[in-house]
Amino acid sequence: MLQTRHTLRRNFPVIGNFRYLMEFFRPEINQYFVESNTSGMPFNRLDRSLVYQRSKGELDTIPFGTQKNVYEIGYEWVTHSLIPKYVDPSTLRVAIGNNGSQVYQASIFNIGAMSFGSLSANAVLALNQGAQMGGFAQNTGEGGLTKYHLSGGDVIWQIGTGYFGCRNAQGKFCAEKFVQKASLAQVKMIEVKLSQGAKPGHGGILPAEKLTKEISQIRGVPMGQSVMSPPGHSAFSTPIELLSFIQDLRELSKGKPVGFKLCLGKPREFVAIVKAMQKTGITPDFITVDGGEGGTGAAPLEFSNYVGFPLNEGLIFIHNTLVGFSLRDQIKIISSGKINSGFGILKHMVMGADLCYSSRGMMMALGCIQALTCNTNRCPTGIATQDPRLTLGLVVAEKNKRVANFHKATVKSFSEILGAMGLESPKGLKPWHLLRRISLDRVKDYSEIYPFLKDGDLLKEPLPTEFLRAYETSSAESFDINNS
Predict the structure, then answer these.
(1) How far apart are CA 286 and CA 190, in angstroms?
(2) Residues near 432 by Cβ (< 8 Å), separated by ≥ 6?
(3) 37-51, 162-176, 184-198: lowest mean pLDDT where?
(4) CA 434 to chain CA centroid, nearest Å
(5) pLDDT band at residue 481, thresholds of 50, 70 and 90?
(6) Residue 86 CB: number of other CB atoms within 10 A?
(7) DSSP state of 173
(8) Which residues contact 243 (CB under 8 A, 6 or more apart)?
(9) How do residues 376-412 score in pLDDT, each as one tens digit?
(10) pTM above 0.85?
């Protein structure tokens, strides 16, 4: 009754406490007693169970038919064939690196960007060792390349706006430090992060609660405060400068594949980058597309919920733009966002991806229970925390196998669906293979829902109407519309 912070507890000092107690346990009550198998978010019970079963090598079939409402608006499926094929999962790899001396044969399914700091050391170790066991790659996230990423698995080194691991005392890009790490044999590709789906235009966030002395030294940042990456890069400020930076990284790394990652924001800005490719003749080896629906770690609610193109529209726009400028064959597209099944991989490939990342799916393979405490340093499974009492429970020697199992079973599932469709290669996938219910009695395939350009459509008149404004207001010399 004497405290002044909470009116409810001041007025009702006994029963008022029950409100806060129930609020504290609300997420767990909701997840375990209220949600149905298909209603949970961001991942429902069916999706989570699939990852758990496959990572543990347990039975992953379901009895008594689907639990999904196949007549619900938004339900999707693919067309199968009466002449199915066999697709060997081991052949499902993608060559990346047309512009340099080194080509990387990537798996179609890899570990998405998650930094050491956001994840615990044991989690990063288990992911990397799982990648080595399964023959796929781990993206470091923007937190820097650490010893935990170097335990045998292939690595895609991501460089964000903070240039962690390759920055000088002023926080600017340092070529000398970059060369030291880029020359390591485990580093297979370099990815420049322009923006991410969880908080596009904001920069990465590492809460102060997660900042340990080790992370502080790795990133070159002071202790005691949250690490906020700058919203934008200091190494470049125009489309042409971005491509020059990519070319510099390619040369400094002695020809390793270099690309960039973004969540689509202003379409004209991406068109400006592609115009710069045309003008300079410099192209990235790959482009990673993230969706505005968010991902792992900490993000402001407004940014996660309301900023950036959702993945479907962003992926299709970027694919279309490259096709329209006759550049699609030169650049691979990696799709990143809520992929945890063979159907998820296939859907993203239909929309234009060549290969995929999974972040939250891989976290669930480690044992994530979707407790939604990633930003608090209290992750109960020891994955998204730096608390040694919690990370101790994550046994690397056990969890690395689960990561490898999940990857193997998911790629196998994709190969089986592909074969059931009568296709022998992902190259045969077309937009009309994927259908969506748009009303109770109407169904459309993806070629009817979304426009898909033909090669060179943006190099001739008349320009497609949906690209007209982005094309006319974009310039290779500037991202700023006022200078276009």
Answers:
(1) 10
(2) 79, 445, 446, 447, 448
(3) 37-51
(4) 22
(5) confident
(6) 9
(7) B
(8) 273, 276, 277, 280, 282, 283, 284
(9) 888 999 999 988 999 999 999 999 999 999 999 999 9
(10) yes
Query: Best-predicted range by mean pLDDT among 29-43, 210-224, 257-271, 361-375?
Result: 257-271
| Residue 445: φ, ψ to 5° | -90, 170
> 380 preceded by cis ω (within 30°)?
no
Cα gap 481→342, rounded to integer Å: 41
Q: What are phi and psi of 81, to 5 degrees?
A: -120, 155
Residue 483: pLDDT band with limits 50, 70, 90: low
**Domain annotation for the chain: domains and CATH numbers:** 1-34 (no CATH), 89-418+464-472 (3.20.20.70)
Question: Quick check: 95 and 123 in contact, CB under 8 A?
Answer: no
Cβ neighbours of residue 345 closer than 8 Å, sequence gap 6 or more = 108, 109, 339, 356, 410, 411, 414
351 and 312 Cβ atoms separated by less than 8 Å: yes
With CA atoms as reference, report the closest residue to 107 among 339, 303, 422.
Answer: 339
Task: Please give the distance of CA 102 from its chain centroid, rounded to a whole number.
Answer: 24
Question: Helix, strand or coil for residue 260?
Answer: strand
387 phi and psi, to 5 degrees? -75, 115
Residue among 234, 111, 216, 96 nearest 163 (CA): 234
Beta strands, E only, 282-423: 286-290, 332-336, 355-358
- The neighbour count for residue 179, using CB atoms within 10 Å, is 14
Q: What is the model's pLDDT at position 449?
A: 95
Angle at alpha carbon of residue 295, lines to 117 and 453, rounded to 5°: 135
Q: d(Cα 339, Cα 121) in Å, to the nearest integer?
A: 24
Q: Hey, what are 133's tokens?
A: 């066991």
Structure tokens, 260: 């960039």
Output the average pLDDT for the chain: 91
Average pLDDT over residues 118-126: 94
The two tokens of residue 316 are 């299709």
Nearest residue to 245 via CA among 317, 310, 166: 166
CA 103 to chain centre: 22
Helix (H), strand (E) at residue 398: helix 396-420
Q: List the structure tokens of 45.
A: 């019970």
- Whether the pLDDT of residue 297 is over 70: the answer is no
How does DSSP assign 100-137, residue by residue?
Answer: SS--EEEESEEE----BTTB-HHHHHHHHHHHHHHT-E
